[in-house]
């Protein structure tokens, strides 16, 4: 391992270590139990009424199945699925000995 790489990884390890120490201190403080005066409790947080309309908020009367599909799978998601599928296929072809009759060869 290169000494420069080691020092960079060492410093990042120290940063992570410092963060975890800070987290442990916070957890220790949260674990300290104390008595609560039930006569003088803080008021509960406000409860806001739910005023949303649950369900699909897009008019879909007379829509085709592909229109439903396009609501959830936009071009970015379909492109991502295609590129990951192609990447998997390339890895598979590189790592395996394919026979001449393999459907990948066609």
User: Looking at the chains present, what oligomeric state does this protein adopt?
Assistant: single chain
Question: Whole-number radius of gyration?
Answer: 28 Å
As residue ranges, the low-confidence spans are 1-9
Order of helices and strands: HHH
- Secondary structure tally: strands: 0
Structural class: mainly alpha
Query: The biggest beta sheet, please?
Result: none
Distance between the termini: 44 Å
The global form is: flat
What amount of the residues lies in strands? Answer: under 5%
User: Helix share of residues?
Assistant: 40-55%
Mean pLDDT: 80
Number of helices in the DSSP assignment: 3
Question: Can you put this structure into words, describing what you see?
Answer:
With 106 residues, the chain is mainly alpha-helical. Helices cover 54% and strands 0% of the residues. The chain has 3 helices and no strands. It has helices spanning 3-30, 65-72, 75-95. The chain starts with a helix and ends in an 11-residue tail after the last helix. The relative contact order is 0.04. Residues 1-9 have low confidence and may be disordered.
Please tag this protein with its features:
single chain, 106 residues, mainly alpha, 0% strand, disordered N terminus
Summarize the structure.
This protein is an all-alpha fold and 106 residues long.
């Amino acid at each position: 391992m290169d000494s420069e790489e080691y020092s960079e990884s060492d410093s990042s390890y120290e940063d992570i270590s410092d963060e975890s120490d800070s987290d442990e201190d916070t957890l220790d403080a949260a674990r300290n139990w104390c008595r609560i005066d039930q006569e003088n409790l803080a008021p509960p947080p406000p409860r806001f009424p739910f005023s949303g309309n649950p369900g699909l908020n897009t008019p879909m009367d007379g829509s085709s199945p592909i229109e439903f599909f396009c609501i959830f799978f936009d071009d970015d998601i379909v492109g991502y699925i295609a590129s990951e599928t192609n990447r998997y296929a390339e890895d598979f072809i590189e790592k395996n000995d394919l026979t001449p009759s393999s459907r990948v060869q066609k």
